[in-house]
Write a structure and sequence with these properties.
By secondary structure, the chain is α+β, with helices and mostly antiparallel strands. The protein has one domain: Up-down Bundle (Outer membrane efflux proteins (OEP)). It contains nine helices and four strands. Strand 3 and strand 4 form a beta hairpin.
């Protein structure tokens, strides 16, 4: 009898010591044991350890960001010659000298002809092209912010899965010890077969949970690698930890003001409106004729060389194409304005949603950390102590352990949701809060 009491007491002490590790807090838990490259090897890398490193690599490596930058470069190249003149036309004309008698004498006209747009048309083209550059820059920056949001979300999932694996590892060690003790007690005739089977089943449950969490971490690593344009199975360094959520956030009014000033989609939309307005003015100027100048030399077979010059204007007789272009330009300008208004409304709505989510998540995290987890930890300790004194059941201990374990995993899930809400806010306002 004395030996049975000692075995139960030793089990309780061992379990309680493991419980202290489980209750240590998600932020303080070490990353799960994973093979890492030797720091001295040429393939060693710290990629994945910090969010800042991932963001920096994403800006350099992500093909979507590179494509957006090339689109901006293309718009800049196009704008550099938007107000340039068209190529001149070289005309060579062979004719005869006017005379009433005598042999035929040839004369040749060699002329260069150049069109000159008037009435500020070249300036309007330049302004429209500059607006196109601004729009491309806004879309490039928007692509970068979208990439940052995706990297932040994937990194939060990577951190959560790694931390959950560490928590589950502690629970696994606890369950294995309890399963071993329950089996020993049953073999000694001091415990029931049901307790031994229940403890073994619980140990198996944590093994299954470990495989699921490992898959979650592998998936998060694959998402990060793909965003960095690397093979999905490229190893990543263990994460150092999630960035803390802000203790307070600006009001919705302040966030909306920031978005109106810094959101790149709004900037791109405003640039499209400016460009459409310039196109509308340009369509209206089509009624005004352009100037064509020609200068050249006259070469005669039997006579002195002469010179010639002509001036011409295009006559705007084709009215219907011009009216159609005006209607098209007006429709495009109005469509750009409506699209900008819709984008602004969507951004304001998304800001309100993300801000509400982040506020609610901060409140949930406060309840979990200040009340729920401490209460569940105390309940688990009490169940272990009662079981060690022979006053409780193994089922009660395992149930308390399940609740504590699930609460820790729920806390990680809520933290990931908070990171997503924060990343969405930062994308919408155009930068860090």
């Amino acid at each position: 009898m004395t030996r049975f009491h000692f075995a139960r007491t030793a089990t309780a002490v061992s379990a309680l010591s493991l419980l202290l590790a489980v209750n240590a807090g998600a932020a303080d838990l070490p990353a799960p044991d994973t093979p890492s490259p030797n720091a001295s090897s040429p393939n060693a890398s710290s990629m994945g350890a910090t969010l800042d490193g991932l963001l920096d690599a994403g800006r350099r490596l992500n093909p979507s960001v590179q494509a957006a930058a090339l689109q901006t470069a293309a718009a800049d190249a196009e704008a550099s010659v938007a107000d340039a003149l068209d190529d001149p036309t070289l005309r060579i004309n062979s004719d005869e000298v006017d005379r009433t008698s005598g042999p035929r004498i040839n004369k040749t006209y060699i002329m260069v002809e150049q069109d000159f747009p008037l009435w500020g048309k070249r300036e309007l083209r330049r302004r429209a092209a500059q607006a196109a550059i601004d729009g491309a820059r806004g879309r490039e920056r928007a692509t970068g912010l979208e990439l940052e949001e995706r990297l932040k979300n994937a990194y939060a999932q990577y951190v959560a899965a790694s931390t959950a694996l560490a928590i589950n590892g502690d629970v696994q060690r606890l369950d294995r010890q309890m399963a071993k003790n329950a089996a020993d007690r049953y073999a000694q005739g001091l415990g029931s077969q049901g307790d031994a089977l229940l403890a073994a089943a619980d140990a198996a449950r944590t093994e299954v949970e470990a495989t699921r969490l490992t898959a979650d971490r592998t998936a998060a690593m694959a998402r990060l690698n793909v965003l960095l344009a690397r093979p999905a199975d490229t190893p990543l360094a263990p994460p150092a930890g999630a960035r803390p959520l802000p203790k307070a956030t600006p009001s919705l009014t302040v966030l909306v003001d920031r978005a109106q000033a810094d959101n790149p989609l709004l900037a791109a939309g405003a640039a499209e409106v400016r460009g459409a307005e310039q196109e509308r003015h340009l369509a209206a100027r089509a009624w005004y004729p352009d100037l064509t100048l020609s200068v050249g030399a006259i070469q005669r077979d039997n006579g002195p060389t002469g010179y010639t010059a002509t001036i011409g204007f295009k006559i705007p007789l084709q009215a219907e194409p011009k009216r159609a272009k005006e209607r098209e330009a007006v429709a495009k300008a109005n469509a750009s304005r409506q699209s900008l208004a819709a984008t602004a409304a969507d951004i304001e709505g998304d800001l309100a949603q993300s801000l509400a989510d982040l506020t609610a998540i901060r409140q949930q995290l406060g309840i979990y950390r200040a009340q729920l987890l401490p209460d569940l930890g105390t309940a688990h300790e009490a169940a272990l102590a009662a079981y060690g004194r022979g006053q409780g059941s193994l089922a009660a201990v395992l149930e308390a352990e399940h609740r504590l374990h699930q609460a820790r995993l729920d806390l990680l899930r809520i933290e990931v949701q908070g990171q997503r809400a924060l990343a969405a806010l930062e994308r919408l306002v155009g930068g860090p809060l």
